[in-house]
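Fold sample X.
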Amino acid sequence: MRIAEWSLYFYRLPYRRPVQWFNSQEDGATFLLLRLGDGDGAVGVAEAPLKPTWSGVSPRSIAAVLNDLLLPAMRDIDVAEASAVSEALARFPENFLAKMLIDNACWTLRAARSRQPLWRLLGAQDTVEVSWCVTRQPPAAMAREAAEVVDSHGFRALKIKGGQGRDTDLAALRQIRAAVGNAIDFYVDANGAYPRAEAADYVAAIAGEGAKVAEDPCPLQPDAQFVELLAQSPIPVLVDSRCASLRDAAQFLERGATALSVKPGRIGITEVRRIAELAARSGANVCSGMYAESALGTLISLQQAGALREPLVLAEQTFYLMMREQVLREPLRIAEGRVRLPATDDIAALVDWQRVERHGFKP
């Protein structure tokens, strides 16, 4: 199977409210959609959120990398084999987001060629339980949002963004707990906001308020200090930011990591599957982390999330609910905290290309 043609589409989708991330604030998100065709009618698609402070790319820079380097390198590759695609991309350093686009688009192309849903091709389930991410706001606003989404969508778990200062984080946990009750599981992602010397005390404090998992409480490194943090923590420590490759995962696992967050929308389905296999051999857990995907990116990422068995935390791919517009023809629905994946083998056919054009722009 060869790639006969490709095209890039840039678009911007507005949020329902401004969102404060750990290193930026935005009122909408910019995306790049990659479309691949095999020349015989099968089409594959993938989507990447373009956030400069997350990936270090702009629309023009990623377009240049894809058009000038990575996609031409695919012309003579049999993309039916994931390993062949990975080997061809490995010749080029860095550019993880551009490589993710090609990898995920090739996976959706394989599904279309094989006439089976991608989740089935990946050995996944068609129903995935998901969580909601409560982003940084004043504690009272975080509590209101948590109660609203639990009531509307039936989430059983909440990822709570910390990093606003220890007292504010603890106040948010208390107010969210009061708003949603004791049946909802919490875990806290501080995005590495606190000094490493304070991490153990911070983890103990959030555990005291009911947090079941601590994600990136400080800038984690696979070193002796990380080993000490694991030994002192009353709850699991989930490694996210610094786990962006199989090599990263191996280094943390060698230091005793028990939980890794892997993101199909950041590093691609193939790399996620390799990390999951390595973690399983080490007895560690792997969770499907969000990368602020739209409904399209969410749909693709959840195909792989459904292949993870008994993750420490539920799949996080729900941030698309924060967006007022989408590029899918039909909304991706959440009922009782679960998403049922469509039975189609043609994800590209679910894209509303008129909406892509309506929200599109030229870099």
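Fold sample Y, listed below.
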Amino acid sequence: MIMEPKSDLTHLEFHIPSRGLIGLRSAMLTATRGEATISHRFLEYSPVKGDIPGRQNGVLISMGSGMAIPYAIFNLQDRGKFFIEANVDVYGGQVVGENSRSGDLVINLQKGKQLTNMRASGSDDAVLITPPIRFSLEESLEYIEKDELVEVTPKSIRMRKIYLDEQERKKFSRTL
């Protein structure tokens, strides 16, 4: 590692494996408020030196297929941060958010509000949904774990579990 001050800037040099560069640019730009300049070049082939740490939290996984109901998203916001907007089609096994705790959580985004013929004061207020987190392709590739995939279509970039069915995920989680 080299660290040299140059006027009001600091020049840093690191030896980082290529697999460690995925997501580094966005993290550095965020940490330096857009002031970092990054360049890299190949140094040498070398043996794998160890694991690169991944995310700490689990993900929120859609239980079923259909439209993501705003009322369901509103009630599940305390479980974590969402990657999708309301009224978007989702499917079972799709990663729709980041869990606030470790471990994956399967959630039902199709559960609507129970309708009654009685009106109560304040019960029909508009729900306030936090804006979703948007990922670029590089950020998605950095975010996923070994049991997840990134799905790229002309209209969207989505993350999903390899096994869409919850029972299959449990069955094959022992082999990963």
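Sample Y note: The chain has a mean pLDDT of 88.
Also: The domain at 59-114+124-172 is CATH 2.40.50.250 (OB fold (Dihydrolipoamide Acetyltransferase, E2P)).
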